[in-house]
User: Fold this.
Amino acid sequence: MMDHDCVIIGAGPAGLSAALTLVKHGVTPLVLDRGMQPGGQIYHASTNSPLPDRSALGPEYVNGARLVAAYQTSGADHIARADVWHIGADGKVLFSKDNSTHQLEARELLLCPGALERPMPIKGWTLPGVMTAGAAQVMLKSDAMVAEGALFAGSGPLLYLIVAQYLRLGVKVAALVDTTPRENYLNAAPLLPRALAAPSILRKGLSLLWEIRRAGIPVYRNVTQLEVIGDTRAEGLRINGNHDISADTIFLHHGVMPNPNMTRALRLQHEWNEDQLTWHVTRRAFGQSSLPHVAVAGDGAAIVGADGAEIEGRLAALSILCRLGQISEPSRDQLARRDLLRRTKLAGVRRFIDRLYRPLHHLRVPQEENTLVCRCEERSLADLRAGFGKGATDPNALKSLTRCGMGPCQGRQCGPIVSQLLSDWRKTSMSSIDYYRLRSPQRLLSLEEFSAFQHVTPPQERTR
Ligand SMILES: Cc1cc2nc3c(=O)[nH]c(=O)nc-3n(C[C@H](O)[C@H](O)[C@H](O)COP(=O)(O)OP(=O)(O)OC[C@H]3O[C@@H](n4cnc5c(N)ncnc54)[C@H](O)[C@@H]3O)c2cc1C
Assistant:
């Protein structure tokens, strides 16, 4: 017999809104999240921010704290610092917490693992001092830490957001180097009318750009060539091959992609999405995956943003309620109507954003032979090219031959680069190249935590 009716993995906007919906209709979900507090990436530490004034992070962050607070008082069963490393097609979930392994079984699983930043393997991207814009955000949100005089380079809303947050806090920014290609503006223009269906998101983006312009920091636009300068650590950026900007901290960013490790290890069906240049989990309207009892919602399935993730969480929860027999199909459809409509509106603006900030191909794959692709196993472009020359023409063969992707991150960083390189070299589509075949455990485990096993009992049997 299954222990839990519904287990949600990930307490970002998708997982939180799903949990609230389930509770509202009489199902108490168990939510597992590896973070200290619920909130996910965007609402990280929103209810206990170390910043004296969290409004510097923007109105969404402040509003997000309300969602987190509603969840915290909802009665949903939450286990923090629970790092899930195995999910079986049989509904079995294994996770690490406090140096031991915990096991449970669920009738319905909702996966909301969120996004990762797209790797940007330019020359020097592995030098000390180079991080991602998301890392800048995490440091700011969780520890109120900033890097004075940092350089920000790349493109996309998240990059402009962190620059604006720094400026609001009075932190010096050396420059913003924008790699959005000029032609993207033209290519995105036909999608603008549909994007206007969600004007608040467009307004938010424009006001960020305006804020940065008003601050008067140096902004370099239409940059197509980027390299980090420095021998043993970052000393600055060379842009377009001839202009150097000094800084000892550089934050790179050119978009996010679904975190593939959980959904891939579970062997869910995925499909290549050319608009977002990433893999999506194949799903039905309410988020159901290729396994009937597993749904996926939010950025972990396809990039939809925080608003989209909340909507998807609610829709997936309604479908789960229906499968658990709590509501009928007609009630599910009735309750879902507004969210389905809003999701269509958001899809219009998302397509516009994807087209506008589509990253340059030569910033997605390394250009120099000695640039590292796999940071964990220190494998360079030259190592991969040599492996390909020896007949390793798919991601798994290349992994076996070169160890690229076998390190602690389990391919999170090199996976998309390897698939793209193979697609280029073989002159074939990403769909036919596919991705690494991932397996559990999805993270490094110590023998100690692996050998200490505990069963997670359902809430009604647990003394809380
Ligand atoms: C670094 C980063 C920072 C971002 N900051 C912003 C921002 O400031 N503003 C904005 O609009 N958008 C931001 N985004 C985009 C934003 O994350 C999403 O649009 C939105 O948060 C998606 O919500 P979600 O619920 O799908 O996923 P998330 O909010 O990412 O939540 C996923 C949750 O799953 C948990 N998780 C993942 N894997 C496991 C596992 N194996 N075991 C247990 N728990 C797990 C994570 O701890 C996390 O709490 C950011 C993205 C990234 C990658």
